[in-house]
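Q: My labmate handed me this sequence with no annotations at all. I'd like to see what the chain might look like in three dimensions before we decide whether it's worth expressing. Could you predict it?
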Amino acid sequence: MSLARRRRVLAILPGIFPSTVVNVAKPLMQLHAAGAIELDLTLQFVVGRRQLARADLVVMTHTIDPACAGVLDDARALGKPILYDIDENLLEVPDEPGLAFHKEPARQAAVRRLLRQAALVRTYSPVLHRYLEPLASKVVRVDGPVDWQLLPAIGAGPAAASSAGRAHVVYATSRVPDSIGPMLVEPLQRVLERHAGAEVTIWGPRLPGLDGHPRVSHRDLVRDYDQYLAQFARAGFDVGLAPMPDSLFHQCKTATKFREYAACRIAGVYADTEMYRDCVVDGATGLLSGPSTGAWAAAIGRLIEDAALRRGIQDRAERYARERFSAGGVGFGWLQQIEEVASQAAAPGAAAARGGAPGSFARVGGIVRTGARSVSRVPGVLRRGGVRAVWMRTRAQAAAYRQLMEWELKLRK
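A: Here is what I predict for the chain of 413 residues:
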């Protein structure tokens, strides 16, 4: 699809993590590379007013730090409509490690304001779609993308050689620490006891209760999503596990695990909840499991013992994923929504006359301000998580800036 004029899209990310990369940055960069849009990609902490002034619309995603809420004032003053992509229920956050900051009243207020101000809200879960409808002017549910270029071509991936009674089972997540994985410990202990040919890989976290087992291996989290998916697709896993608690927050998540498992030709066992029933046909493109230990152990065991069923699910799930999550379909949806939102641009105020290329001084100033805020938070992080937590946060922030610079160089080409 080509528009009469390429829309200038400013995408503002809260950070570099899987959902912002997979759902927003990569699809928009692909549209830019195809000449369909003109993309400027930045972080909340370093966005400049001149970047806003030259954009036709603003794309925002996930959360918004209250310290950066001024960007909403600038967007309104400059008449720039906002397209908001949100893949989690940031207003119904459970008491879990790493999520407490989402419950801060100022952050919740900023998210609610962003929902009200957005011309269009994109989301992926049917439950979250219903939840957000009263809070925003327009909400649409979309499918997330798969970067098929990172995956082997059909027939070129690892051969499905595991026979009945032998299978390599994987549970993978970017949550570290992980509050969901422990529900798999007892089912996997049963599976390992009953099926001598089963092997298990835990990719990302470590699950107490499985450490030390001779047929359980652990792989460290790969923070670069492209590297992770390419490695994951070629690892030769047979069965993938996707548990999910039946709470409002968790049911508002995206069925990313189905996209990944199906695209990588892995037969998945998924929690029998609405988010997975939306894409899994039980027995055809995956197995749905109830919440009990026995149900999970039985479903995993069924795929280990029945190689024909397992391979049939792998074939059908991959075909389904290539059709539903095609790059062309996802890109076309983005373009339609970009055009719809850009057409709602209001007449800019006098401040909009300050257009021009993004200023390097504004960017450096944003980085300095972010560094100062980070330093002020070190004592609290140190108290809660120790030196390791400070180091992990510092490393993640440095990696985000490095990734942003790499993207800018790529876009400027």
